[in-house]
Amino acid sequence: MTARERISPVDHAWLRMDRPENLMQILGVMIFADRIDAERFRRTVAQRLRRYRRFRQIARLDNEASWWIDDPDFDIDAHVRHSLLPAPGGKGELQKFVAEMASTPLNPARARWEFNLVDTADGSSALVVRIHHAIADGIALLGVIDSLTDDRVDAPEAGDLQTATSQDNEDATSDENDAFWRTILAPLTDLALTSIHVGGHLWGQYLGLRNDPATLLDYARAAGSVAREVSRLALMNNDSPTRYKGKPGTIKRVAWSEPLPLLDIKVVGKLLGCSVNDTLLASVAGALRSYLVAKGDPVDACEIRAMVPVNLRAPAASDELGNRFGLVALELPLGIENPLARLYETRARIERLKTSYQAQLTFSLLAAAGRTPKTVQEQILNLLTSKTTAVMTNVPGSPQARYFAGSRIDQQMVWVPQAGDIGIGVSILSYNGRVQFGLITDRNLVDDPGQIVDRFADEFDKLLWLLLLEPVARLDDPDAVAADLAWLADERLPGRQPA
Q1: Residues 27 and 102 sit within 8 Å (Cβ to Cβ)
Q2: Which of 172, 171, 178 is nearest to 350 (CA)?
Q3: How far apart are CA 117 and CA 127, in angstroms?
Q4: Are strands 25-32 and 407-415 parallel, antiparallel or unpaired?
Q5: What confidence category does residue 309 fall into, taking pLDDT thresholds of 50, 70 and 90?
């Protein structure tokens, strides 16, 4: 008799969240330095995924619940594909292929994941990864992907006894100001929890939730019922109406920037009194603003809200699959033209998020929604997404190069799905001493995301040039450097060479 396991309420909620316009698939891209051996790649995936039973199970819904069921006909060849890009087979064709995969549903009759190995025209390879969110969140899946890769080119196919992961390595972006953002990937320790101020009985409930997530619904009731939790989110103002927000369709667009040296970003942030993430997010806001300006759209007082995943796993559960994360809402100040003022405002908003308990609240809502009829879940989802323009992941990957089936990974990107009517997915990923910015958009909203990602380096360069032009003492006052900012706005900056 086929074994089955009941799907948790949170994972059940993600399983039911699929829409033709927004599929609940975590999407990843790896670009290799050379042509990978396709047969060795297949063997590596088959051998190393054996430790994860979930990747051999079918997600099946019935009228009362949903179940993980062992697939009696599991075949690795149904999940590991090999494709050839159409001519000329460059970056543009790869981005189109990734966008097509983002719009293609995974087969519900099989385990919901697929690795598609792609041969490019320059003699190298790329890997497009699709994994349904019900299997695990991006935090857990980073561990899965790391278990498939190695830290040296000559590692045995079966893998080392101890494989380094992103969580095991000291994050290359780490500094004191980035402690909050490291909770996105690192399990919350008791020390990290002391920086999140949750008052009264809700704090005690959250500590208990970490030890026993199955009691989630009781905690939601004790906090004042699901309706009370929803009402708190309902008080959140809508963000600004822009072309980034609207009704998505089924055709997606994908683009990613050339890598930037992480050391440059660390130095600029340090000298300006900001963290790496403050600097990166302010540059993202600047790129989004610049695109709107180029399109002739109004940007005065413009604010767009991005939902950011935050890990809520206990340390003992760091290797478990499933979903254990909440969301915090970060408002990007697109209305601020001055890049230095925009940076400092972004820093201030991140500081305020450090005392928020939105992550616990949204996790509670998702788990409770998984226990309700689908129509109720959709109402909760619509409430969250109606006040949001984008979903954003900020991922510190391995600080050293990794190898997959003997081939070095040169670049990598990852996007989490955009739920409801959200049409923009933002990804910032550091890897091997470099940082990349990526976008996935809906064609109905933004048909040319490359025009946005190309502006990312320019926005960072404005901060870099300010450091070169101005005495450090003047940089505390953005208004004091207005003249040089006007010069930078004329776009007379030297062209940046790809990192």
Answers
A1: yes
A2: 178
A3: 5
A4: antiparallel
A5: confident
406-438 pLDDT, tens digit each:
999 999 999 988 888 899 999 999 999 999 999
**CA–CA distance, 465 with 113 (Å, rounded to integer):** 44
Q: Give the number of other CB atoms < 10 A from CB of residue 190.
A: 10
Amino acid code (one letter) for 386: S
- The span from the CA of 16 to the CA of 20, in Å, is 12
Total-model pTM: 0.82
Q: Which residue has the tokens 């905690």?
A: 219
